[in-house]
Amino acid sequence: MQMSTKHCCFSRFLLSLHLVSRYRKALASTQVFLFFCVVVFSTPPEDPIKCSSGNTSCTITNSYGMFPDRSICHASQVLYPTTEQELVSMVASAVRGKTKMKVATRFSHSIPKLVCPEGQNGVLISTRYLNKIVKVDVEARTITVESGVTLKDLISEAAKAGLALPYAPYWWGLTIGGLMGSGAHGSTLWGKGSSVHDYVVNLRIVRPAAPQEGYAKVEILNQQHEDLNAAKLSLGVLGVISQITLKLEGIFKRSITYVAKNDSDLGEQVASFGYEHEFGDITWYPSQRKAVYRVDDRVPINASGNGLYDFIPFRPTPSLALALLRTTEDVQESAGDADGKCISAKTTTTTLVTSAYGLTNNGVIFTRYPVIGFQNRLQASGTCLDSLKDAKITACAWDSRVKGEFFHQTTFSIGLSVVKDFIEDVQKLVELEPKGLCGLDLYNGILMRYVKSSNAYLGKQEDALDFDITYYRSKDPMSPRLYEDIVEEIEQLGIFKYGGLPHWGKNRNLAFEGAIKKYKNAEKFLRVKEKYDSEGLFSSTWTDQMLGLKDGVTIVKDGCALEGLCICSQDSHCNPSRGYYCRAGKVYKEARVCTHLKSK
């Protein structure tokens, strides 16, 4: 048995060096490796907050080690409350001193600078130790947790009581407060939809208050309180959420089958597919003209099966394999080797489909479809977070301490009424440049998840399809990407031509240009913001820009369009010294994209 296990680990390790797919979707995506050892050790991600002197003189970044503009965010100190009472005291002290504050989480998965306080004198309040399960009410089917509890722990505790969160992101390394604050979601058009914040029935938030109220107070919001529609998706600008109560359901089983098809009728199929299958999603490989449909529905609780979804991208990955794969992609980019990317993409995505993306029928091996199992075993995963330290021999694929994934992510939702036209526009680009999107397929294509309209003021405005697009980012900010113009045109098609709503916790700067104007209740949100924090102590220049209170969400400088910091309007934005210039799009003529002189 011992020899067999070692052989499995060694052979899978070799396979991981050869077969890779990159998939960073529900959190911000990860590289896919086929590393199936029965016993796995991994180095968990490091704390995104680093301080040079105890808990003072600190910096903060995201879990990928880099914000879109590559800036470093500073704070004078970090505070770690362990109770709501301590949290109130900390907020009151900062309000008394008119000190800027930002809420930070254990994993910091948001790509934009939502966690950055203003300047260098602000304070970080981490929810790392606000991580207790407060109450599970079986009769009411609710769970109350502190805001630093992870999605993994919530799912586990609910299951112990025979309960389940019906819809959630696929990555369990998110805190409940963090995923609510950025609008994280799963995939469904059923019920109240796939956004976790739409299942909040009660919320406690610590916010600034007048001196006579002690400078800070706890606001308790239930479903009858209109302010809940602002607080349950707030970008962290109203205060610090201390507790959340979520509505659950009785535990149930699901049945999952992946079906690969030609994408010729994808635009026709997407709307009906979402209404037909409760948990359905679609992974689209545009350069291969293929779409993989996840047929995912509830089945009777007595249906046979104890399936498990240990999603391959979220497992520990050998650091050596990560380094080899990143080096290969760097070489392909510098050499303009589109053929190499296309060959790799086809091989790896085919292998992923064959391996059922990490589904197993019994927690050990995949034998056949459908895979049937309990909701808590299928809805989310993230085993690279939970293993022991191993000196970075293995890691999460995006861990910035090793040479691994480094990428951009563009994520937006497009209304079902026009999504067919968007898909057909992307297909036109593929016809014009058949190799242009192989780079996306290397990162496991485009993940398409269903989202429903929400009563949250900054939530989804209509039933829509969310597109998660992950792609190579150079370590050199002035270095253009292979077929950069094609991906930029898709980004501008989605965001501007079709009015896509950007995911608040992902995206490059340009996606937020004018975004607040797309929300019909934006003014209601801003009124609540003024009511809760009139001095803007929980706001920053960046959040003010996102919310349209200040100009400057885009940054205009030489080479800015290469990193999505601006939309190119002159060649200097595209780094002409390296042979790039600014031109109109090939399908969406109003787009302005960076392209190589050879294609001028």
From TrEMBL:
Its EC number is 1.1.3.8. The keyword Repeat does not apply. The keyword Membrane does not apply. Pfam families: ALO, FAD_binding_4, GULLO2-like_3rd. It is an enzyme of class 1 (oxidoreductase). It comes from the Eukaryota. Its cofactor is FAD. One of its GO terms (cellular component) is membrane. GO terms for molecular function: D-arabinono-1,4-lactone oxidase activity; FAD binding; L-gulonolactone oxidase activity. Pathway: Cofactor biosynthesis; L-ascorbate biosynthesis. Residues 71-251 form the FAD-binding PCMH-type domain. Keywords: Ascorbate biosynthesis, FAD, Flavoprotein, Oxidoreductase, Signal. GO terms for biological process: L-ascorbic acid biosynthetic process. It catalyses: L-gulono-1,4-lactone + O2 = L-ascorbate + H2O2 + H(+). NCBIfam families: pln_FAD_oxido. Belongs to the oxygen-dependent FAD-linked oxidoreductase family. This is L-gulonolactone oxidase. It comes from Vigna radiata var. radiata. The lineage of its organism: Eukaryota, Viridiplantae, Streptophyta, Embryophyta, Tracheophyta.
